[in-house]
Amino acid sequence: MIASVIVDVPAKQTDRAFEYRVPESMQGLIQRGMRVVVPFGPRKIQGFVVGFPEQSSFKQLKDIEELLDIVPVLNQELLSLGLWLSQETLCYQISAMQVMLPAAMKAKYEKVFDALVPIDDLPQTIIEHMDRNGQLTWKKGTENNLLRDLQTLVTSGEMELRYEVKSKAKKKKERIISLALSCDHAIEVIQSMSARSEKQKKVLHMFLQSENTPLPVKIVKEETGATSATIRTMIDRGFLEESQKEVYRDPFEHREFKRTKSFRLTDEQQQAIDPILDKVDDYSHETFLLHGVTGSGKTEVYLQTIDKVLQQDRQAIMLVPEISLTPQMVERFKGRFGDQVAVMHSGLSVGEKYDEWRKIHRKEVNVVVGARSAIFSPFERLGVIIIDEEHETSYKQEDTPRYHARDVAIERAKRHGCPVILGSATPSLETFARAQKGLYYLLTLSKRMNDQAMPHVSIVDMREELRKGNRSMFSRDLLEQLQLRLEKNEQTVLFLNKRGHSSFIMCRDCGYVMQCPYCEVSMTYHRHSEQMKCHYCGHQDRVPVICPECHSEHIRYFGTGTQKVEEELATLLPQARVIRMDVDTTSRKGSHEKLLAAFGEGQADILLGTQMIAKGLDFPNITLVGVLSADTMLHLPDFRSAEKTFQLLTQVSGRAGRHDKEGEVIIQTYTPEHYSIDLAKSQEFEAFYKHEMIMRKTGQYPPFYYMALITLSHENVLKVVAVCEEITSLIKQKLSSQVIILGPVASPIARIQNRYRYQCLIKYKQEQGLKPLLKSILNDYQSSKKDSITIQIDVQPYMMM
DNA sequence: AGCACGCCGACT
DNA sequence: GTCGGCGTGCTC
């Protein structure tokens, strides 16, 4: 029996199946989608079984070394999805498989020296560095400068070098004890015990009372006051038995979720859900765009759809942009579906993610709520896939495999015969265009639930403020409203668009801005460490006191970081209690939730933060939302900047007045006439859509064109430019005249970690030969050699940097 | 990705 | 003459 295996070596030359003999012992056990350990050259590596060919053209097949799973970790559907993913995103097959599994399952490799003779016969220098098992790792050997000696020992046959595959996936174990005696016997033992063995008696009584159910050691100790020593003795004397039980790490261990029931849907919601449920009933695929204004009750539509899916004994995936940011969403799902729900997000530890994944794999849950990678949850009978806030850019993975969760969702749903729901108040242009064309089924929720009024949005022209002599970051309007909230004891959210506005150092005399010496970006000033830092390569530097260019002393910290806003707030409104949320204050695990909870409990008047507070914030007492400068995002070199600005402003505005109190939104800007800001004021999505579509058409951008971005980087500028030109002309030659090629041009970030970056952007409508061409370009230019060009291809890129 | 093999320069 | 630099090709 022969198995073909995709090996864990991400390189172009190994991006194919290798064949192995299946040893007798594994036959009847081994299945496609299981992980194995195989010999590969001199080492041992992990691989995935993908098939069982009848015969092999290869003469000298090696045996599979070890079978790592009892149940396949990738089912048939995921295996074929992996192949699709690798073709679609031009990545290696092994990378596609790896991305579908939790990080904990990625194999680790270690080289170990093992003694072949009695350990005492080895030199003392070696012995003293060995571990208990008489092994010495390669790493330790290098650290202690023993490689020479080890080499001699290996050649003389006294030691051997082995390549080990280590699994990082550790299952959490708990020590369990149970009675090793029959109940009658235990009673006898108690009676025969001396009076001094009081603790032991107590333990035995405990087991008799619980009818000898095995109990965790921890519990027994707490209940009886017995110590580890007591229990040890009892085990030694044969009264108790010890075993290990696997337990799940529960990220929500100390949280109670109130059970909730379905709400009655409004007419509008009912009209939206009916066509979805029809598709669920038919086991047929359809992509729905659920376009609903903020507060229109999209979530209830999701919940009731999932309810239906569960009734049919099927499963559901619900994607959210970044779940740790929306504990309220977790709450709603756990509340409705209880322990049927697994939660997957980046805030979990590797082990916690692994445990949540295993709950799905073992069919212990039927619903997954999670971020992007949750789209690969190993369900076998999907009934619906929901993507909330469909327009969010975090659904696109920015490193290989560069997939978009939306595309994967639709591909999976086709295979399972189930609907996809894309929900948003501000759908991406691509999605809305598809809905308009009839490729997606458009569902609209135009009314807010409970007839809440939409918040009142006003725009403040900051140029006008400046003319009036107001040089502060706060317009008079905003300050006035802020004061009003303080008096009324209501809350405010202040939103600062961080991109392009983080604090940098600038010389007021000559305009010098401190740049990273290795990357073409300004360095950011970090207050708490009093250092300059590069966000791309992490390079740190001292804060300059005099300008290195003109030696002026007027060099200072510039820009509007959240810290600076906080300081200004403290001067303007000293009585206000402010909670600041940014990278600095939320870096510790769980601090996010804590800060939000504190704000929810009314411990502060103002919540000040960046992007991260734009989502999922839903507190009744927020009646004012201020956007300090709406246009920082608008000037980024990105054709989606207007779309992103509109989405963000709409999103942020939705935070105000979600309950019975009326909300007020103030947007400060230097370009009030820009359509994305003007239309965000009136929250007219369709008007914005029409305008933006015209811009995209003239600019020849998506959704009118598809795109592919090739980025090259190398230390030598000339080399990058030369290769980029070569590739560009090759593309021009091979593709049709319909194709528009921009490049070679320097990337918006022209240098990172001292490597110059050039790119070539391909815009196309229909191009059969594109994928094969890109694949061959990768093949020709991608190489593992050092000092060679790095090539990166992103199909449908989101970040143009 | 590793690792062995193999071909050239600078050393005891 | 050999040691060691890294460029090339292979791994079932």
Automatic annotation (TrEMBL):
Source organism per UniProt: Jeotgalibacillus marinus
High-level lineage: Bacteria, Bacillati, Bacillota, Bacilli, Bacillales
Domain of life: Bacteria
Domain Helicase ATP-binding: 279-445
CDD domains: DEXHc_priA, SF2_C_priA
Subunit architecture: Component of the replication restart primosome.
Binding site for Zn(2+) 1: 507, 510, 547, 550
Protein name: Replication restart protein PriA
Substrates-to-products reaction catalysed: ATP + H2O = ADP + phosphate + H(+); Couples ATP hydrolysis with the unwinding of duplex DNA by translocating in the 3'-5' direction
